[in-house]
Every structure is written in structure tokens, then in C-alpha cells.
Design a protein that fits this description.
The protein has 224 residues and is α/β, with parallel strands linked by helices. The protein has one domain. The chain is built from six helices and six strands; from the N terminus they run αββαβαααβββα. Strands 1-6-5-4-2-3 form a six-stranded mixed sheet. Helix 2 packs across helix 6. The longest helix has 20 residues. The chain is elongated. The relative contact order is 0.23.
């Protein structure tokens, strides 16, 4: 019994040693390109929409929701209309195949009385179009798992790189202009060491990109 306990302790110590060596980390870069003055009143709102024009590509709704939730927090909190609520209310003008791609398309839409009225009902001052994705590359290593009379375990090591790149274009509904673009690029190395038990160390690139993009959008829309 003591021998078995000692072996377990050795395995556990080795696992913690591996974790201490390999720690997932992420670096994030945010760039802002301002093309016009901004500002928002307390009774005005922002809607954040994901670009999904291509059938085989679309910005994840979870990321769009994340940015909206974070913009609605803190001292500089901004009222954000949920994406699905807005798209449903504006049907069919903001469906993937019919959504405006340029500000001049938005100008044509706003000429429709029903569109202008619904925009006013929501209090939309800015439309933020988010376009991007997370890509995984550079997978290396392997892990094998075995089972036997003495127990089961996995051994090996794997690593990969994640890159989350997202652009946010800000349209001013009042002036019908594109007032700026913000880019958030987060990269990180993830590890999967396995010494009896696999211990994933995941770089949270998309979460970091969401947080930094939302903070920058808050300042941008507020005119900071």
C-alpha cells in the first residue's frame, strides 16, 4: 500500500513540475484607426453585428455576444442592443444575404421609413460590424494512452498556436459614415502535457481579444 501511495505521489509531483514549466500565455495587440468624431448620449445605444456574408465563413455569435456584454460593463458602460433581438426586429434587412456591406447601402436602407423608425425605437447611434475568426496552426507532438493490470495512463506532449484576429468597423447612423476601425489580434501557445493524466494549458486568445476589443470600443464610442 505504501509503495502504491509513493508512486502516486511521484506521478503527481511530476505532473505539477510539467505544469510549472509549460504555462500558456497570450499576447494581444490593438490598433485603432479613427476617421471621424464620436460621442454617445445616455439614451442612445450601440448594436454589434457579426459579418456572415459567405456561406462557409461567419464571425462566431459567441464572440459578438462577448464583446457586447463587456461593453455594457464598468464606468464607461454603453447600452448594447443584443444582436439577435436587433436582427429579428429588422428582418429581413440585416440577414446575412441582405445586410449592408457599405455605408452607402445603409443610407439606402435608412430611406425606408420602417427601417428608420425601428432604428429610432432602439435608439441606435452606432452599428459595429465585427469580422474575424480564430485560427489554430503549428500542431506538434503526440499523446498515447494505455490501460493494463496496473492501471491506465497517458503519456506524451502536444502543442499548438492559436491566433484570434478581429476587426470592428464603427458606422455612425446619424451621419451615415464609417467613423473608424479597431483591430484586435491575440496570439498564444497552448500545451497539452500528459504524464498519466493530460493537463491542457490553453491560451485564451479569443477571450483576450474580446476583452481588449470591447474596452477599446467603449473608449472609441465615448469619444475618449
Amino acid at each position: 500500500m505504501k509503495i502504491i501511495t509513493t508512486i502516486k505521489l511521484i506521478k503527481l509531483s511530476a505532473a505539477f513540475f510539467v505544469v510549472s514549466i509549460f504555462t500558456a500565455c497570450t499576447s494581444t495587440t490593438v490598433d485603432e484607426f479613427r476617421q471621424g468624431e464620436t460621442g454617445i448620449e445616455s439614451d442612445e445605444s450601440v448594436v454589434i453585428l457579426g459579418r456572415r456574408q459567405a456561406s462557409d465563413y461567419g464571425t462566431r455569435s459567441e464572440f459578438v455576444e462577448c464583446v457586447g456584454e463587456r461593453m455594457n460593463r464598468g464606468e464607461n458602460a454603453i447600452s448594447v442592443v443584443p444582436e439577435q433581438e436587433f436582427v429579428d426586429a429588422m428582418f429581413p434587412w440585416f440577414e446575412p444575404r441582405t445586410a449592408p456591406l457599405r455605408t452607402r447601402d445603409l443610407e439606402q436602407l435608412m430611406a425606408e421609413d420602417v427601417v428608420a423608425r425601428k432604428m429610432n425605437d432602439f435608439g441606435i447611434r452606432y452599428i459595429v460590424w465585427v469580422d474575424g475568426f480564430t485560427e489554430t496552426s503549428g500542431r506538434t507532438g503526440s499523446i498515447s494512452c494505455t490501460a493494463g493490470p496496473g492501471g491506465a495512463g497517458c503519456f506524451g506532449f502536444g502543442t499548438w498556436e492559436d491566433d484570434a484576429n478581429f476587426d470592428a468597423r464603427v458606422w455612425d447612423v446619424g451621419s451615415l459614415r464609417n467613423v473608424g476601425t479597431i483591430n484586435a489580434d491575440a496570439t498564444g501557445q497552448s500545451y497539452l502535457p500528459a504524464l498519466v493524466v493530460p493537463i491542457p494549458l490553453i491560451a485564451r486568445v479569443e477571450a483576450n481579444a474580446c476583452s481588449r476589443l470591447a474596452t477599446q470600443l467603449q473608449d472609441f464610442v465615448n469619444g475618449s
